[in-house]
Specification:
Order of helices and strands: HHEHEHEEEEEEEHHHHEEHEH
CATH class of the largest domain: Alpha Beta
Structural class: alpha/beta
Number of domains: 2
Largest sheet: 7 strands, mixed
Number of helices: 10
Strand order of the largest sheet: 1-9-8-7-4-2-3
Helix content: 25-40%
CATH topology of the largest domain: Aspartate Aminotransferase, domain 2
Shape: globular
Number of strands: 12
CATH architecture of the largest domain: 3-Layer(aba) Sandwich
Amino acid sequence: MKSNALNFSGGPGALPETVLEQTRVAISALPETGISVLGMSHRSDWFRSILNEAESNLRALLGISDDYAITFQQGGSSLQFAMIPMNFAGRAFAPPEYVTSGYWSGRATSEAEKVTSRKVAWDGRATGYRQLPDLGQLDISNSAAYLHYVSNETVEGLQFPHCETATSVPLIADMSSDFLSKSIRPDAYSMIYAHAQKNLGPAGVTVAVIKRSLLERIPAGLPAILDFRTHVSHGSNYNTPPVFAIYVLTLVTRWLRFDVGGLETMQSINERKAKRLYDALDALEGGVTIHADRRWRSQMNVAFTFGDSRLDSAFIDAAREQGIVGIEGHRSIGGLRASLYNAVTDQAVEILANAVTEFSLERI
């Protein structure tokens, strides 16, 4: 099996083989235009059709109503960390509240503090970021500008089991690493955002789904490119957008709609993949340590360690000999991490699970 099929990287992550093949052709010349996708104008009719299709596919996959605008922006989630409080933490509201459940939500919380007063509704630092709260049980001010959380922590391998919760304030979710991996109720949120380099395509584009009524609270005077209304009113084409990244995202959403058959099917596949790997790790009975407490284990990112950095390194080398790549843990916690994004197949997970078992029997 080719290493593309055994790519467990935390991001940029694996892409479906059919998308890779279509992209290869498009880099040389798009069948529709005869011009490389890398040289296509963002003002062309072709690109407008791609933007329209990308939005249409997302609405169909997630059931997003016209009450929400969909934009394609640049800057990744890191830019959203600053834009969200700039746009939505108005003086008429109490400070926004943040759930700090891991590395990336910590980054979001820190960036917000540079822009506005903000409150930490819950912090998992004391547990070593191994657990998550029940969002519905948090003590949130009824006048808070919004509640922000990260639905899946890629570094620590934590995932909220239910992305919908009843909150008295607008709910904003960074879904960068589990967006389109399962069905959700978009109407439970005032905003969802996700950068592409997990389940959506290559780095360079970030999807933001924003309730139109939330846009009404944006203050005047923001720089145009940092104002969400700019991107909505210009149809995600205010300045030169990442044409290539949006094109590949469109291919991925086609794949999800028409090849996979929708998000309920994708969710079942992802549940099966995660179960296979976690079962293999649990069967080692202490030979490995999974970072997340069982209740909060992520279906997208499995963070674990053999308990010794030398063993972790030895497993990385042994796995590479089988073509398995991208399993190094994040620099903040070390260890190992297998990311099971949508394009990672059952067969790839089977190979990884067997590799973990064989390594444990031989070395531990």
